[in-house]
Amino acid sequence: MDEIALIAEKIARGGRNIVFTGAGISTESGIPDYRSKGGIWDQFRPVYFDDFMRSRDSRIEYWRQKTGMYHDLVRAKPNAAHMAIHRLHEMGLLEAVITQNIDGLHQMSGLPEETVVELHGNTRRIRCMTCGEISSEEAAQERITAGDPAPECHCGGCLKPDTISFGQAMPAAEVERAVRLSETCDVFLVVGSTLLVHPAAGMPRFAKRNGAFLAIVNLSETPMDDQADVRIEGKAGEVLPKIVEALDRG
Ligand code: NAD
After folding, report:
1. Pocket around ligand 1: residues whose beta carbon is below 6 Å from it?
2. Between β-strands 121-128 and 134-136, what pairing exists: parallel, antiparallel or unpaired?
3. Catalytic annotation, residues
4. CA dist., res. 228 & res. 242, Å (int)
């Protein structure tokens, strides 16, 4: 049996199937990943959370970086890989997606909000770091375009995209839910992640330790490759639709 057919066969058993996604699933939607050549870390130096909170200059730099990424984000649409995962949901074969991504493309593919566990937040949402009010990225970007390089809330607090910066605490409820889902699943399918960023990268270990079938679809190596039951080196937008086709064929 080939690798695609084997993944499809495991998913078809109707157990708890988890898909875990990283930046690599969205590169085919035009959003660069972090670590590939030409990725975000080739262009920007990250702004740490404490610096963001302490210094207006850091906030200006942070928003300058976010504005660069925003232009990719507004153009981005879910690609064939996101749509294949949505199809798994329609077939009743998806327990949840755990994602490191902040682009909201899983929800845009049609997945219900409660099916997506966002470990690193969502950049389409802006949070006031003082009063907690949520607003939209469009509204913040309009203010930046109008000449305010680091917009503030009406309460005077700093506005920040609702994502987890370096040095910022992870969202406890989402991490707990992701651990629980990983520990209790039957199939854990990794798509487009280097599996280097913790605690997200620990999830496949929890799954494997509890006997799940671990499959990895990625363009480069990961530290979990030797523990995977199946590893496919290929583009998410090509491989995932093939898994769905194999399921459709029965
Ligand atoms: P990463 O950048 O570290 O790694 C991406 C991986 O995906 C690489 O191994 C690469 O080989 C692979 N890849 C690239 N294109 C692919 C494709 N078409 N098909 C299959 N694999 C492909 O990303 P990461 O491990 O997710 O982790 C880093 C962090 O980056 C996360 O914290 C996330 O919050 C953040 N991030 C998110 C986005 C987004 O939301 N789209 C974009 C960039 C970074």
Report:
1. 22-24, 26-28, 31, 33-36, 39-40, 100-103, 120, 192-194, 196-197, 218-220, 235-236
2. antiparallel
3. 120
4. 19
Lowest mean pLDDT among 8-17, 70-79, 99-108, 225-234: 70-79
- In this structure, the answer to whether residues 157 and 240 fall within a common structural domain is no
CB-CB contact of 227 with 218 (8 Å):
no
Say if residue 149 is in the same domain as residue 241.
no
Site of tokens 């210094």:
55
CATH of residue 69:
3.30.1600.10
pTM of this structure? 0.94
- Do 183 and 223 fall into the same domain? yes
CATH number, position 87: 3.40.50.1220
What pLDDT, on a 0 to 100 scale, did the predictor assign at position 103? 96
Residues 66, 177 share a domain = no
Substitution site in 19, 27, 33 for ligand 1 pocket (most atoms within 8 Å of beta carbon) = 33
pLDDT, one tens digit per residue, over 60-80 is 999 999 998 888 898 999 999
Cα 47 to Cα 32, 41, 58, 186, distances in angstroms: 18, 12, 7, 38
Q: Are residues 113 and 129 in the same domain?
A: no
Residue nearest to atom 23 of ligand 1 (CA): 23
Number of domains in the chain: 2
Euclidean distance between the first and the last CA atom of the chain, given in angstroms as a whole number:
14
